[in-house]
Structure formats: C-alpha cells, structure tokens
Amino acid sequence: MSHAGATTAPDTTAGPPVAAGGSGRFWSSRRVPAGIVAVLVLAGAGLLLYDVASVRAHRPAMRWRRVLARQLAERHLDDTWVLAGAALAAALGLWLIALALTPGLRALLPMRRPHPDVRAALRRDAAAQVLRDRAMEVSGVRAARVRVRRRKADVRAASHFREPADVRADLDITLTEAIAGLGLTHPPRLALRVTRAARKG
Fold first, then answer.
1. Domains in the chain and their CATH numbers?
2. 73-107 pLDDT, tens per residue?
3. Kind and range of the H or E element at 148?
4. Tens digit of pLDDT for each residue in 28-39?
5. Number of other CB atoms surrounding residue 20 within 10 Å
6. What are the φ and ψ backbone dihedral angles of 171, each rounded to 5 degrees?
7. DSSP assignment of 23-49
8. Coarse DSSP helix, strand, coil percentages of the chain, rounded to the nearest 5 percent
9. pLDDT of res. 41
C-alpha cells in the first residue's frame, strides 16, 4: 500500500501506555479559534480595566459603558435586541463547547497502532485514491468515483463490456480486501453501486 497521505505523530496523550492495536481520532489544536477568543477576551478585559481605573481616578466613565448601562436598565427582557444578543451569546458558547468536546481533523482516518508510542493516520482523499485505483483494476470497470467518510466508503462504478452484477461481485471482493489493507482502526463500511456506462454516439 502506498504511504502517500499517511501522517504519523508521537503519542503525547497523558496516561498509562496503550497496548498496540486501536487508535483514537487525532485532536485538532484549533489555534485560530483559541487565538481569536484570547485576543477578544484580552481586549475586552483591558478596555474594562482601563475604564474602571479611570472612574476610580474620578474621571467620567467611557461613553460606551454609560450607554450600555442605560440600555440594560431601560430595556425589558423580552426586547428584540436583548433576545438577539442572548441568542448570539448562546450560539457562540455552544460553538466553543463543541470545539472543546470534539476532536476535529475529520480528514484524517486513524490507523492501527503497531507500537504504543506511534500513531498514524491516513488522509481520506488518499484512502479514496487507493480504493479508486483498485476498482479500476477490476475487469469491466470503465470509471469509478470514490468518496471516503469516517464510517462509509461510497463507491460508484460504471461497467461497459461485462454485466453489472458480475462487475459488482468482483468489486465487492476487491474493495473489501483493499479496505482491510488500509490498516484503519475503524474500517469504513463499503457502499457499492455499479451501473451500465452510457454508450457514446
């Protein structure tokens, strides 16, 4: 099997060593969302701290804080703008929670671990290319399209000089072996569809 598209990384997960075998999904570091949140929190905290220090120094509060305080005091909880702001804050909070609880890196398919200290993954597009190449080796296959997801490998093939049922039977055997040969922790389920290729002219 070609090693193109495979990614290896040392296992830095805290805890006792894991026996060779399965490997969980890779977790994204998500530097961009974390950086954006950190910058926004730092800017907001800095601005608020400056305004509080200014008030303590017997200077008037910034206009934005006076306007915000007045709006919060005058507007009712069922006001459209209050509800819209609450909905936006809730959506942002749910998004951050989802980022914190989900691994990310959906393009990487974890591979079986031959050694506890080594983790490897195969890119989904590389896995799809391997399956497509194997499908095109089957006699009677004129064209093939492969899309690999985390749980399913969707294969669409077109046959020309052989019966679609015979081509499908050969493809089922070939692609099942190819999926097992990828060495994935959770091999995707094969979803195969074979149709007769349209005649040209």
1. 31-101 (no CATH), 119-196 (3.30.70.1350)
2. 887 878 888 889 889 989 988 988 887 777 777 78
3. strand 141-148
4. 777 777 788 889
5. 13
6. -65, -40
7. --PPPP--HHHHHHHHHHHHHHHHHHH
8. 45, 20, 35
9. 87
